[in-house]
Design a protein that fits this description.
The protein is of the alpha/beta class. It has 21 helices and 26 strands. α16 runs parallel beside α21.
Length: about 625
């Protein structure tokens, strides 16, 4: 969600900025722009649409300059158009700014500046901020840094900003609060980015900025970081994590399809060094190092958003089943506004693929203020959540470029399973034979995932028959209910077909009124403890002429004789079924979207990293 790149050094900035924007395209955006400082001039180029449209718009323009900032915008204040695209200029044209986040009190500041005679060219909150900075410089005689500090002390909300000054071409300024920003340090040059991916390959040294910090990057001088009161801040230079960079599709039509097919190897990577197959044991370093604190938890609270929330629902069942400790699962976006009852006996598990989800970070901050112990589960090394939590585990699934999460979901489920197993063994709440059998069955999951992936072409053919649909219902029970929610989410995200997930038994309490011959219903009807119950639900749908697509255990004859279409998956333990059953649902959503001609990797209105509330 929105992306920032910046560069100052000895090389031409334009190609570095554009390459950085390309690497941030996965975040989701609707316009792009860049500002270049060169010989006392400030050139700004903007375009609605993709980075390629920006390149076309600037193709015949002067793009020279060794300092600049660039941005991809995901619209919040104002429609997606060139006027609202970043960078925004100050009234005199001296300053250019790019901004991620939301300035919540922008309307009040805008009204005040209008009374001072300022006229605005966009409807964004960002333009208000750069106007305020220049106003403080012109009317109060402040220097640029002092004006930035005063302006940021006044604004309410979240921001990651980068500023270029026409009158000082040897300096860039960046600042952050509740929105990620990374500074790369090269040989006589600096890079600015929303995350590490644009910096990878340019330098191996980065500084992760913290809330309330302002970075001053001056050509030929060391990096300087201060706070809003101009107190210099100590900063740690860290290496760029391995395997960060611009991923390729490796012959697949889309990143999403590639990432679906990567899942067997991702689960192996997730288990590597943590699961001992011959011994049938699980060891997470976070559990080993915090065994007493985690084992003493009276309650676990999982906070997450979207797909991560669905993984959290499965994690709840793992912890309650294996550890016999109550678990609550909350939307992070609602958590901090619900006056949650949290104390020092609670462990809060925060889940986020990017590690930058604004709502989840805010939930962490609130939980920490109440004394809770925070366990983070994320994918991106060095991300804000990884730094804000007391301990945690990475899912190790590699960069996920497709906006609709696939391998991150199964990675999160796998880590939650490992956490529950490790805790249960430490707490003595699980029978040894059950514990070892579960670990053994988990080791077989990657091969079983590969079996499911062999159905790709079958699912592609089946998907063509569903492009007519305007609505879908997904039904499951037990461990499969959250998978039904996730399957419905995948379909609506990339095909724009309305879809809802329900517990299968709840279908009778309302949704059954929607059933007719035009309503596809996807059942997760694998052979487990709930099989007979789900079978009854399938019959109820067929009695009302609904079209049933059932995901069944290989060899099933009963549901297969009733359903209109079936997709088979290998048999496994019920608690491990989410890792397998999610794959055909991901493929179904993918192929329906492809058949409908949708932009699968970059669905409309969505962003990969949701860094605003």
């Amino acid at each position: 969600m929105c992306g920032i790149t910046g560069y100052i050094g000895t090389r031409e900035a334009w190609p570095i900025l554009i390459e950085g924007l390309r690497r941030l395209e996965y975040r989701g955006y609707d316009s792009a722009g860049a500002a270049l400082v060169n010989n006392g001039s400030l050139s700004v180029y903007k375009a609605k649409g993709k980075v390629a449209d920006l390149e076309s718009a600037a193709a015949d323009k002067d793009r020279s300059g060794t300092a600049g900032i660039a941005h991809t915008r995901w619209a919040t204040h104002g429609e997606p158009n060139t006027a609202n695209a970043h960078p925004h200029l100050s009234p005199s044209g001296r300053l250019a700014i790019v901004h991620n986040g939301i300035i919540e009190n922008y309307a009040t500041i805008k009204s005040r500046l209008r009374q001072e005679g300022y006229e605005f060219k966009s409807t964004t909150d960002t333009e208000v901020l750069v106007y305020l900075i220049e106003y403080l410089m012109q009317k109060h005689g402040k220097g640029l840094l002092e004006a930035v500090q005063s302006a940021l002390a006044e604004v309410v909300g979240a921001y990651a900003i980068a500023l270029a000054d026409r009158d000082d071409p040897d300096m860039l300024i960046a600042a952050r609060k509740s929105s990620p920003l990374v500074i790369g340090i090269g040989d006589g040059e600096f890079y600015i980015a929303s995350d590490v991916s644009p910096i990878a390959g340019c330098t191996d040294k980065v500084v992760y900025m913290e809330d309330g910090e302002i970075a001053i990057m001056r050509r030929g001088e060391p990096l300087k970081i201060v706070d809003l009161k101009n107190v210099e801040c100590r900063h740690e230079v860290r290496p760029v994590p391995e395997n960060i960079g611009l991923a390729g599709k490796d012959g697949f039509a889309h990143f999403m399809l590639k990432e679906i097919h990567e899942q067997p190897d991702c689960i192996i990577d997730c288990m590597r060094g943590r699961v001992d197959g011959p011994l049938g044991t699980v060891r997470l370093s976070a559990v080993t190092e915090n065994k007493e604190r985690l084992s003493a938890a009276r309650r676990f609270v999982i906070v997450a958003c979207g797909t991560s929330w669905h993984a959290g629902l499965i994690g709840k069942q793992y912890i309650e089943t294996f550890c016999h400790v109550p678990v609550e699962v909350a939307y992070a976006s609602e958590f901090r506004y619900s006056n949650p009852v949290i104390d020092s006996s609670d462990v809060v598990i925060a889940i986020s693929q990017s590690g930058e989800t604004a709502d989840t970070l805010a939930a962490i901050e609130l939980a920490k203020s109440k004394g809770a112990f925070i366990y983070g589960i994320c994918n991106v090394v060095g991300s804000s959540i990884a730094r804000a939590t007391d301990t945690g585990s990475y899912i190790h699934v590699g960069p996920e470029i497709g906006v609709a999460s696939t391998k991150a979901f199964t990675g999160q489920v796998a880590v939650l399973l490992l956490l529950a197993l490790n805790l249960a063994e430490a707490m003595g709440t699980m029978k040894p034979e059950t514990y070892h059998a579960t670990v053994k069955a988990l080791m077989e999951i990657p091969d079983k995932m590969r079996e499911v992936l062999k159905s790709d072409k079958v699912i592609a053919g089946l998907s063509r028959t569903f492009t007519y649909a305007h609505n879908f219902i997904y039904l499951g029970r037990g461990f499969s209910y959250p998978v039904a929610l996730e399957g419905a989410l995948k379909l609506k995200e990339i095909s724009y077909i309305h879809a809802e997930g329900y517990p299968a038994a709840e279908m009778k309490h309302g949704p059954i009124a929607l059933i007719d011959a035009e309503m596809p219903v996807v059942f997760i009807a694998t052979k487990n403890a709930m099989y007979e119950k789900v079978l009854s639900n399938v019959q109820e749908i067929k009695a009302r002429k609904g079209r049933v697509l059932a995901v069944v255990t290989a060899g099933d004859k009963v549901v297969s004789s009733i359903a209109d279409d079936v997709l088979e998956v290998p048999e496994t333990l019920e608690c491990l079924e989410p890792l397998i059953v999610s794959i055909p649902l991901q493929l179904l959503a993918y192929h329906i979207a492809v058949c409908k001609g949708k932009d699968v990797d970059r669905p409309r209105n969505l962003a990969k990293s949701v860094t605003v509330e």
